[in-house]
């Protein structure tokens, strides 16, 4: 199939695409240990209040809004964050509404947010030639027991390459990933709406397979054009009630 020789639309002056897309929010939280010194009954009451506020964001919304929320625990696997909420919506303002509901709870007085990423789904110019025109438009997150996440920035030199050169490197990258069927990638784009260029997340039941995948990709030519791909987060999929019980 043909390589897209004008992926940005700069030459052809392609019209802006205003079609509805999914926005993604990866919201990470850290608990103040002071919360654990509260009486047990008070902790239980505060956690229940937070759980109700978080759940209501999707439960109160009509289905056509397409709101999705998944919860993950990071206690014991990372020191600077304890839990993560993966939110998906067609309107960025929905994330403000979700956070406002949490901000009105007492638990937010004990939670900080060391990291918070915003990104958007769009078709991949590299994968479409292989997997079809619909690839990468919508995702249903949280299929695996684990979610591995990192923000990602390419070097400026990457954008100076010809479309054929970039496509060739990405073909190698995709080919190298081929055997790792137990890892599902979600690539989202942050150009202009957050500090990073992409947020990449991987659903899987097999952490060992993901480690081997990342190791293999280090040997591809495209990896030479990575400017930054940290911090990296290993998130364990759990009901939010279980996540909160892990914290206190």
Quick summary:
This protein has seven helices and ten strands.
Give an account of the 3D structure:
The protein is an alpha+beta fold and 248 residues long. 30% of the residues lie in helices and 24% in strands. It is built from 7 helices and 10 strands. It has helices at residues 40-59, 93-103, 128-131, 156-160, 163-177, 207-217, 240-247; strands spanning 23-31, 68-73, 83-89, 111-112, 116-120, 146-154, 183-189, 198-204, 226-228, 233-237. Strands 1, 2, 3, 4, 5, 6, 7, 8, 9 and 10 form a 10-stranded antiparallel β-sheet that branches. Helix 1 (40-59) runs antiparallel to helix 2 (93-103). The longest helix has 20 residues, at 40-59. The chain is globular, with a radius of gyration of 20 Å. The model is unreliable at 129-137 (pLDDT under 50).
What key phrases describe this protein's structure?
single chain; 248 residues; alpha+beta; 7 helices; 10 strands; 30% helix; globular
